[in-house]
C-alpha cells in the first residue's frame, strides 16, 4: 500500500510541475487541472498508513517518554536537514530568491512547514504528540471501536464542510498560523489517523469486509473518481464561483468520502498483491516493490530533487501545452525513478540513511567506537 500511495503523491506533485509550465489559458492546462483531484487521495492515504503503522507497533506501549524520544529522534533531524536542503536547492534553481536574512527565513519555514512538501513531517510530529490519546480511546472503549470510527467520520465531514463553506470566506490572516494553515494542522486529518488505527486493530475483519464488498467499493470509487471532474469544473468553478485554490482544496466533504473509498480500494489491491507475492517472492517486481516499501518515506523526502530537475528540463525545452500534457506519465516515471534511486543509495550507504528516516548509525555507536579506539591506544 505504501508504494501505491507514494506513487500517487509523486504523480500529484509531478502534475503541479507540468501545469506550472503551461499557459494558464490553454485547453490542455484546464484538462490537466480538471483531472488532478482524481489522484489527490494519496495524501490522505499516507495519513491512513501513518495511523496504521504506528498503532500496529505501539498499541500496547505504555512508555510514552521512550516512544517520543525514539520517534522525534528520527524525525526532527530529518526535518531540519531536508528543509535546509530544499531551501538551498530552491534558491539554486531559481524557484525563490535568496533572502537577506537566510537563517531567520529558514527558521520561519521550519515553523510553518511550507517548503514544498515538508508539511507532512510537521503533521507527523504532531501525530506523535497526540497518538497516546488515540490509543487511550481504543483501550478505553475496546468494544466500541466502530462507534469511534463513525464518530470520527462525522466529525471529519463536519470539519471539511466548515472549512469549505465557512472558513474560506472568513479573514483568518490575523489568526495563529496553525489555525488557518489547514495542511499543517493534525486535526484536519484526524479521521484518517483513526481509520488507520482501526484497520490495525481489526485487520482481518476489515479484510473480510473489503473482499465481500469489493464490487460495490470499486463502482463507488470509480464513480467518485470520474465525478471529481464535474465536481471541480461545474460545481466549484461554475456554480459556486470558487477560486482555483479553493476549488482544488483537499478539505472538502466530497473528497473526504472519495479518499475513504480510495483507501479501501487500495487496501484491497494491497491484499491481492500480497497473495501474488507469496507465490512469487523471488520475482524482480516483488523485490522492487519490497525495496520501495522500505524506502517509501525516503522517496517522499527526496522527491524535491527529481521535481526540480524536471522543472528545469521543461523550462529549457519550452514545449507546447498539448505535448506537455502527453508527457505527464513520462515525467512522473522520471521523478519516481530519480527519487527511488536516491532513496535506495541513502538506504544502502550507512551515514546517509538518517536522511530517509532510517538511522543506522547512532550517537551511542559513535561513543562506543570512540571508547574502543581510546582503550586500544592506552593498551
Automatic annotation (TrEMBL):
Keywords: Acyltransferase, Cell membrane, Membrane, Transferase, Transmembrane, Transmembrane helix
UniProt keyword Transmembrane present: yes
Molecular function, one GO term: O-acetyltransferase activity
Localisation: Cell membrane
Pfam families in UniProt: Acyl_transf_3
Record membrane topology: Multi-pass membrane protein
InterPro entries documented for this protein: Acyl_transf_3_dom (IPR002656)
Domain Acyltransferase, chain residue ranges per copy: 1-347
Family that this chain belongs to: Belongs to the acyltransferase 3 family.
Protein name as it appears in the record: Acyltransferase
Organism: Paucilactobacillus nenjiangensis
Amino acid at each position: 500500500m505504501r508504494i501505491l500511495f507514494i506513487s500517487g503523491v509523486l504523480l500529484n506533485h509531478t502534475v503541479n510541475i507540468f501545469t506550472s509550465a503551461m499557459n494558464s489559458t490553454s485547453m490542455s492546462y484546464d484538462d490537466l487541472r480538471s483531472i488532478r483531484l482524481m489522484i489527490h487521495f494519496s495524501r490522505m492515504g499516507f495519513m491512513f498508513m501513518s495511523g496504521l503503522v504506528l498503532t500496529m507497533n505501539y498499541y500496547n506501549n505504555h512508555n510514552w517518554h521512550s516512544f517520543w524520544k525514539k520517534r522525534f529522534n528520527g524525525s526532527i533531524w530529518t526535518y531540519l536537514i531536508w528543509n535546509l536542503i530544499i531551501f538551498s536547492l530552491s534558491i539554486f534553481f531559481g524557484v525563490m530568491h535568496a533572502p537577506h536574512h537566510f537563517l531567520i527565513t529558514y527558521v520561519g519555514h521550519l515553523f510553518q512547514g511550507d517548503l514544498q512538501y515538508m508539511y507532512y513531517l510537521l503533521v507527523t510530529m504532531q501525530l506523535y504528540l497526540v497518538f497516546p490519546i488515540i490509543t487511550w480511546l481504543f483501550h478505553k472503549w475496546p468494544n466500541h471501536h466502530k462507534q469511534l470510527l463513525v464518530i470520527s467520520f462525522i466529525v471529519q465531514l463536519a470539519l471539511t464542510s466548515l472549512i469549505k463553506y465557512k472558513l474560506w470566506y472568513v479573514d483568518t490572516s490575523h489568526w495563529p498560523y496553525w489555525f488557518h494553515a489547514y495542511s499543517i494542522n493534525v486535526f484536519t486529518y484526524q479521521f484518517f489517523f483513526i481509520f488507520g488505527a482501526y484497520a490495525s486493530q481489526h485487520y482481518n475483519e476489515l479484510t473480510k469486509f473489503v473482499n465481500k464488498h469489493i464490487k460495490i467499493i470499486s463502482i463507488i470509487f470509480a464513480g467518485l473518481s470520474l465525478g471529481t471532474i464535474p465536481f471541480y469544473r461545474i460545481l466549484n468553478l461554475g456554480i459556486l464561483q470558487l477560486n482555483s485554490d479553493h476549488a482544488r482544496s483537499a478539505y472538502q466533504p466530497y473528497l473526504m468520502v472519495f479518499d475513504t473509498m480510495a483507501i479501501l480500494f487500495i487496501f484491497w489491491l494491497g491484499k491481492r498483491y500480497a497473495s501474488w507475492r507469496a507465490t512469487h517472492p523471488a520475482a524482480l517486481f516483488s523485490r522492487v516493490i519490497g525495496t520501495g516499501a522500505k524506502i517509501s518515506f525516503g522517496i517522499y523526502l527526496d522527491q524535491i530533487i527529481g521535481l526540480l530537475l524536471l522543472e528545469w528540463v521543461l523550462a529549457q525545452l519550452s514545449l507546447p501545452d498539448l505535448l506537455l500534457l502527453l508527457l505527464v506519465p513520462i515525467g512522473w516515471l522520471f521523478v519516481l525513478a530519480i527519487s527511488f534511486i536516491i532513496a535506495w543509495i541513502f538506504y544502502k550507504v550507512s551515514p546517509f540513511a538518517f536522511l530517509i528516516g532510517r538511522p543506522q548509525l547512532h550517537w551511542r555507536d559513535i561513543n562506543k567506537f570512540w571508547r574502543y579506539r581510546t582503550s586500544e591506544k592506552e593498551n
